[in-house]
Amino acid sequence: MRVLIATRHLSIVGGVETYLRAVLPRLRDYGFDLAVLAEHGEPSGGVVSGVPGVPVWLAGAGAIAEVERWVPDVVYAHGLGDPNLEAALADRFPTVLYAHNYQGTCVSGTKCQTRPEFAPCARVLGPGCLAAYLPRGCGGRNPVTMLSLYRSQRRSRSNLGRYRAVLVASAHMAAEFRRHGAPEDRLRLVPLFPPDAVPDPKPPESRQRSDRVLFVGRVTVQKGLRHLIEAVPIASARIGRPLTLVVAGDGPDRGAAESEAKRHGVPVEFLGWVDSARRTGEMRGADVLLVPSVWPEPFGLVGVEAGCVGLPAVGYATGGIPDWLSPGVSGESAPGERPDPKELAAALVRALSSEKHLQRLRVGAREMAARFTPEAHLAQLIDVFHAVSHAGRLAATGAK
C-alpha cells in the first residue's frame, strides 16, 4: 500500500514532526511504500531521517500532479497550513486526518480565554468567536489578523466532511471534533505514544523523596508555569518541607516566571532546554511531574513520558490530560474549568501526603504509560489505512 504523508514542516519544529519521525520508519517496516508532501523545509533529514530514499515534494506548482503520478492509496494528513491544499488532496485521494491540535475549531488554535481569567473555551467555531476574540483575550490584539485566521479556520472546518477518517489522541479531542461536524462513523480515537521512551521493565522501587518537583515544556503563559510558582509555596507550607521547582524548558514567558519566583520566594532551577537523557534523569530524580496547563492540552504526552520512569503527575484536569492522569492512580489533579493555583497546590499536597501514597502513584504512573505503546498505535492506524483504502477502491469502481 502507498501512503502519502502530508504535513507542514519537514524539519523538526514540534510534536507533529517528532511523531512523524517516529512513525515513518515503523510504517516502512510494516511494508508500506511512503512519500511525503510538505509545505516547508529541506527535503532531507527531519521527519524523513529514518526513511532515506522516500519521494519528497514541496507544496507548490506541480506538486499535486507529482502526487497523482505516484498514485497514493491513502493520504495521511497532519493539518496543513493551506486549507485549499488540504481540500485538493482529500477530493482526489482517500485521506485520513490526524487532528493533533485545534485547527478548524478555534480562531487562535488555543481553545482558551485569558480574560477575565484563564479558562478553556467550549465555543463552537462560528461568528460568535469574532465577538469574543478581543474582549476575552482569545489571541492577539490585531483585528485584521483575527479575521484572516478566522477565514482560514472556517475553511479547515469545512474540510472535515472530506476526510475518510479523522483521528484524535484523546476523548476530549473526539468530543471537540464531533461538535465541529466530523462524521461520527469516521471519528477514531488513536492515542499517541512517547517516541523516545518505553516504560521501565520493572515497577519503581520505593525511594526517599527528593522534594524536587519538575516542569517540562515550553514556557508560555498557556502552560501555566506562573500558576505553578504560586502553588508551590502553598504546598510547601502545608507539608512542612520546602519544595524545589525544576524547570526544564524555555520560552517567551520565562522572564516573567523568573520574576514571579523571586517575588514568591520559590526555590527554582531554570535549566533551559535539555536533551532527552538529561530530561529522563530529571524525571528519575523528581517526586512529581507538574502539568499546570491552563489551556486544554489536546493530549499532554509529557505525562506519559514521565510515567515511563515511574514519575506521577499533578496538573489541571483540562483537555486530554484526564485520559492518562487518573487521580489517586497515576497522579493527582485539580479542576480545570477555572484553573486555580490553590486547587493545584491541594493536588500537589495530596500526591506528597505520604511515602506510601507517593509510591502507589509511581507504580500507577508506570502502569498507565505501558498502555501507550507504538505497537498499539500502529495497529489502530494500519486498520484505518486498510479500511479507508478498501472503501476508496470500492468507490472508484462503483461497487456496492
TrEMBL record:
> GO molecular function, one example?
glycosyltransferase activity
The record's annotation in InterPro entries points to:
Glyco_trans_1, Glyco_trans_4-like_N, Glycosyltransferase_grp1
Q: Where in this chain does the record put each Glycosyltransferase subfamily 4-like N-terminal domain?
A: 14-191
Query: Transmembrane segments in this chain: where?
Result: none
| Name under which the protein is recorded | Glycosyltransferase family 4 protein
Tell me the organism's taxonomic lineage. Bacteria, Pseudomonadati, Planctomycetota, Phycisphaerae, Tepidisphaerales
Its source organism is: Humisphaera borealis
Q: Which residues form the Glycosyl transferase family domain?
A: 205-367
Domain of life the protein comes from: Bacteria
* PANTHER family, A to Z: SULFOQUINOVOSYL TRANSFERASE SQD2, TRANSFERASE
Tell me which positions the record assigns to the signal sequence: none
